[in-house]
Amino acid sequence: MTQLMVRLVLFDIDGTLLHTGGAGRKAFRHAFGTAFGVSNGTEGIEFAGRTDTSIVRELFLKHSVDHSNENLHRFFDTYYFWLDHILHNSEGNECPFVREFIHSLKSLPNPPTLGLLTGNVRLGAEIKLRHYGLWEEFCTGGFGDDHENRGEIAKVARSRGSEMLGHRLAGDEILVIGDTPLDVACARAISARCLAVATGHSPVTELESHSPTWAVRDLSCIEAREVCS
Prior knowledge:
The protein has helices at 23-36, 52-62, 69-87, 98-106, 122-131, 150-165, 181-189, 204-208, 224-228, and strands spanning 8-11, 18-19, 93-94, 113-117, 140-142, 174-178, 193-197, 214-216. It has 229 residues and is of the alpha/beta class. A six-stranded parallel β-sheet has the order 5-4-1-6-7-8. Strands 2-3 form a two-stranded antiparallel sheet.
């Protein structure tokens, strides 16, 4: 059977595109304190690889805050303020060779559509990526406010990409790029190809143990045409 060309590339954000210096975690802590008067409310909460909405649910449960729409809006409105403020006062950077790889994707003879697959809520993702001048590179995706479960977010991203491109995308027409085993699982949830990059906290050996299509040190170690053809 002839292998299909990749038509949609979905990037994770934290650890794949950016290192924000922990801006998201810090913003969560400050926002929860500002909105609900709880100091160090995020202590003991695991953030890595989780969706923003699942973290908020755990925070509300831990501190007996009603999980109402009003309180969700109250928290996230405060979170957006703190995230923007902290990004402007934190040391962070793009992950290695991100811009070069994006340029290589866009320079292919039949360039794929670029999107996001992230546990960040959409506006949080935009704030982070705009700060580093990357938001405009992406035109679709799935986000943490689409669903608490990352596998379901992947399905949303596939659906939006399919609608944008005018046909239902097969798994082999989608490439997920991420830095954790959870990103590999996201790709598997929609039968997509997966490029795992060791630019986050997971080394190549750990990523390889989860059987992505490719596992590399960073985006300089593989060609865009290889992963898309």
